[in-house]
Amino acid sequence: MEMTKEEMLDLGFKFHGHRCPGMPLGLRVAWAAMEKLGVSRAKDGELVALIETGDAHCAGCFGDGVQIATGCTVGKGNIKKTHYGKIAMTLISRNNNKAVRAYVVPEFFAKMEQSPFMQQRKSGVPASQVSCEISQPSIDMVMSMPDSAFIEVSDVFDYELDSPVVQFKRVKCSGCNEMVIEKYAHVLDDKIVCRSCLEEVHKL
User: Fold this and answer.
1) What is the pTM of this model?
2) Signal sequence span per UniProt (predicted)?
3) Distance separating alpha carbons of residues 32 and 15, to the nearest angstrom
4) Per residue in 26-38, pLDDT tens?
5) Which domains does the chain have, with CATH numbers?
């Protein structure tokens, strides 16, 4: 499915759930990485994105922008968090085992920290409750700045990844009677169990 950048921005806000500069930041950094790597949006698992944010990260919204731009999604299993606490990403092409790393430069944060949007967020206002009058200038800043003003992209480098084989075979767990993909099943007392049932046994 081909989309314009404007359509991606609109879809990104709908997918993300609120308007903030973090999601567009993910779009911009991902687009810059894709251009340097010479790739288009993934339809399958031909791209892998490693995003360097983490849990409770002030700009975790960045990851949703990366998903929209690159087509690397949780469902496809080709996006992962490294939990480095940064606003950065590595984009890898499985087609040629090449990659680039892109990150937001420190000078950008000095500008963003002073924005009314960030002041409200720091005071505890949820992003969804910040008015458009407050959030839109920060969004416009992210979307209008040239890449060179706030994004650094590395040279292309080698990055080899194993290509996982999609698993189809299912087995039934003897504990909960639910179906589980075979590679995730375990054997306990000669019976097939899923991981959650196995963990319940170990709690006893």
Assistant:
1) 0.88
2) none
3) 21
4) 999 999 999 999 9
5) 5-158 (3.30.1330.130), 170-203 (3.30.60)
